[in-house]
Amino acid sequence: xxxxxxxxxxxxxxxxxxxxxxxxxxxxxxxxxxxxxxxxxxxxxxxxxxxxxxxxxxxxxxxxxxxxxxxxxxxxxxxxxxxxxxxxxxxxxxxxxxxxxxxxxxxxxxxx
Length: 112
Known about the structure:
Largest sheet: 7 strands, mixed
Oligomer: single chain
Shape: globular
Structural class: mainly beta
Radius of gyration: 13 Å
Number of strands: 11
């Protein structure tokens, strides 16, 4: 079955950086459009970024444009989210998503 395992979250100061990873299995990763979502405390889940199967079509929510970069390594079946210039409002659990399948999430906390 589909498995998505996120890692790389943690505590970082405002202005800092983190790189999230998502290791996928149970489906043909190289054919899949992949997404990152996040959910902040007390808020609904929010779509963050999308990348098509070969990485040529990439979209971001406006609030992260110019700061976050989504990428993938199909040989490693891994999805990435490079997050720079982190802000307090980026604090959330970040999820890797394929179709209707979600990983368990990784916590990102931005705090001084």
